[in-house]
C-alpha cells in the first residue's frame, strides 16, 4: 500500500494453500520463487501454509532448504493462522516469524483495493453490473444454506 500504483500480485506469485494442496504445487511455487526470472522484483506469498498436510509440509521444507542454497535473493512471505502455530510449517520457520498487525485503517485498505479492482472506463466488462464497477466481490451470509 506504500506504492498505490504498483500492481497487485499476479497468479504466479501467490499460493493459496489448503489440506488438498499437493507437494507438486508447492514445488512449482518454490521453483518460481527461487529461480529469479524477473530480477527479483516479485514477492511470492504462501497463504494459509499451516493448512498443508504433514507430508506436503515435510517435502516443502526439504525443497526450501535445497533451493535456498542456489539463490539467497528470494522474496518469500509465508502467512499462517496464529492459532495454528503448532503445525509443521509455522514451527519449521519459527526463527523467521514476525507478528504482523495491520498498519492501515480498514477504510484505507478498502480504498486501496477498490483502486485496483475497479474496471477502467469505458469497458464492456460484466463488472459494470456490480457495485462501483468492481470486478471482485464477496458474498456472505450469517445463515447457512441461503444460496450463496
Automatic annotation (TrEMBL):
Name of the coding gene: Rnf213_0
Superkingdom as given in the UniProt entry: Eukaryota
| Classification of source organism | Eukaryota, Metazoa, Chordata, Craniata, Vertebrata
Q: Name one GO cellular component term.
A: cytosol
Q: Which organism is it from?
A: Crotophaga sulcirostris
| Name by which UniProt lists this protein | RN213 ligase
Output the Gene Ontology terms for molecular function: ATP hydrolysis activity; ligase activity; ubiquitin-protein transferase activity
- Give the record's keywords alphabetically: Ligase
Name any Gene Ontology BP term: negative regulation of non-canonical Wnt signaling pathway
Q: Where is the signal peptide?
A: none
Amino acid at each position: 500500500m506504500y506504492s498505490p500504483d504498483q500492481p497487485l500480485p499476479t497468479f504466479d506469485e501467490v499460493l493459496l494453500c489448503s489440506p488438498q494442496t499437493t507437494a507438486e504445487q508447492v514445488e512449482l511455487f518454490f521453483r518460481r520463487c527461487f529461480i529469479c526470472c524477473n530480477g527479483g522484483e516479485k514477492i511470492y506469498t504462501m497463504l494459509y501454509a499451516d493448512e498443508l498436510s504433514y507430508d506436503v509440509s515435510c517435502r516443502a521444507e526439504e525443497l526450501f532448504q535445497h533451493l535456498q542454497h542456489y539463490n539467497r535473493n528470494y522474496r518469500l512471505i509465508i502467512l499462517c493462522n496464529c492459532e495454528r502455530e503448532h503445525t509443521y510449517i509455522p514451527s519449521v520457520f519459527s526463527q523467521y516469524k514476525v507478528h504482523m498487525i495491520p498498519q492501515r485503517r480498514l477504510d484505507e485498505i478498502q480504498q486501496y483495493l477498490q483502486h485496483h479492482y475497479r474496471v477502467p472506463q469505458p469497458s464492456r466488462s460484466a463488472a459494470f453490473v456490480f457495485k462501483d464497477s468492481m470486478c471482485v466481490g464477496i458474498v456472505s451470509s450469517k445463515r447457512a444454506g441461503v444460496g450463496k
